[in-house]
Fold these 2 entries.
Entry 1:
Amino acid sequence: MRIGLYPGTFDPITLGHIDIIRRAALLVDRLVIGVAINRDKGPLFSLEERVAMIEAECAKLSEQTGTEIIAHPFENLLIDCAKDVGASVIIRGLRAVADFEYEFQMVGMNRALDDTVETVFLMAEARHQAIASKLVKEIARLGGDVSKFVTPPVKEALTARFG
């Protein structure tokens, strides 16, 4: 069984994330969405809320692709998380060239830690390349319309959070 790990904070999950998840699900038998417990980032949504959003959005994708998609919180090294879930491939989404420089360094470090786990990069579709959770939160906080960037349930959660 080919298991992939797509890690991130997902605070909140965006249409860009969903695009990568949908395409990654076609490459593996099981896709684990690694939900990072990153206290330094000070997430807007709790871990439980982020996992629930991911599970709700991925249920549809799992049906469509026939791939098992599960959410898995983690707080250890990414390469250790990959080992924990049995992943042989880490999937990373790229939006721009600036993303690649950081990701390139990360791949090198992960390969030094465990050269049996490959990393695959998927480019976000052009219409999703500018979407970043940080910017989506800022738009929502200032009362802007985020419906082009997130699903209706996620939009509702943002609206509820910012009033």
Note: Residues 35 and 155 are 19 Å apart (CA to CA).
Entry 2:
Amino acid sequence: MPDPKTGDSVKVKTSDKEFEGILMPIPDILDKDVTVIKLDNGYNIGIDNKKIKKIELIKGYKKPSHSKKKLKPKKGLPNITIISAGGTISSKVDYRTGGVYADYTAEDFTSMMPELADIANLKAKKIMSIMSEDMTPKEWRLLAIEIEKELDSGADGVVVTQGTDTLHYTSAALSFLLKDLSKPVILTAAQRSIDRGSSDAFMNLICAVKAAASDIAEVSTCMHGTTNDDYCLLIKGTKARKMHTSRRDAFRPINDLPLAKIYEGGKIDVLDKDHKKRSDTKTKADTKFQEKIALLHVYPGMDPSLLDNYKDYKGLVIAATGLGNIPQSLFNKIKEIDMPIVIAPQTIYGRVHPLVYANLRELSIKLNCIFAEDMTPETAYAKLGYVLGHTSKIEEVKEQMQANISGEITKRSLEKTFLY
């Protein structure tokens, strides 16, 4: 019998235990005196070679075929475009590091989930392969342009796949960059890579395609609503936020209720009856965006001289404590900075208020800071870049930042939205 090779199913017998799994390459970061196998539960373990008595071959590895058949359109089904931008949802394991890297294209999604062909006529389009922490406003603009192109050339909806870490930045930015939106634009992703047994990629994508075929013509995120496979939450793009590093239900609506619950079997429970509905307007990508802006988190003992780093910037969002407080030591520095400064809540939930305390009134009235109501700092950042792309006049910036453009500001805070 030949010696087992990478990818083979094997049984590893040690001095005190047996393990079955797939023989894996040894990551560069590990000691070479170990054998790595992937267990049936999707996790890898390293076994000290000194403890191994025998490695038995169970089944040899057969390289899978990656041929992609072009799907024939079915009458009566909506036309949905899946735009792939990378991220964990389109990732394989990188065995040099033990991490993951963006590899699968959007076409791979349709071949791995043939049931998607019964939901919609799919068009797959890969426009970039980038991990979300590397995304910039340049990529947001590119996405907006591609979405406009698809929506105005026959697509009934668009699904965008990218990484989770900055998904809420992208969803907020697209909410402002896509003007006169008349069809659904759904952002989805995965907390766990698609080659893991516990991956949320399949259900998230299926629910996202269903949402893109719905009547909810909003930019929104579609991710697991619970740690189980119960349903996905459709959340307005300006109100979504990643609230956990690894849970499958990491994305929650902030200061708002979800738009809907999307079930894998096809059921859609609409929770926001005031959502935008489909129309015949032409969607336009309004890609003017001021990139020279920053998001700054204040903290006790903060050195005021840090603000000197932003003197040549065009705008600044400060994630402030409580109702919008910042250290008194920063006030003089703010006076020196000639740019719009937006105050957002670092508490995430709740809203800032310019009139409750004397120091807040000074920030608002004397220093002309703009209080961002109940916008998250990330949404305020995306909105400020969009607004400054169109005007630099402080009064116009203030007026637009405090106007509800894309559902980013709620009229009043509802108790049931907290920790939804």
Note: Residues 293-401 form a domain with the Rossmann fold fold (CATH 3.40.50.40).
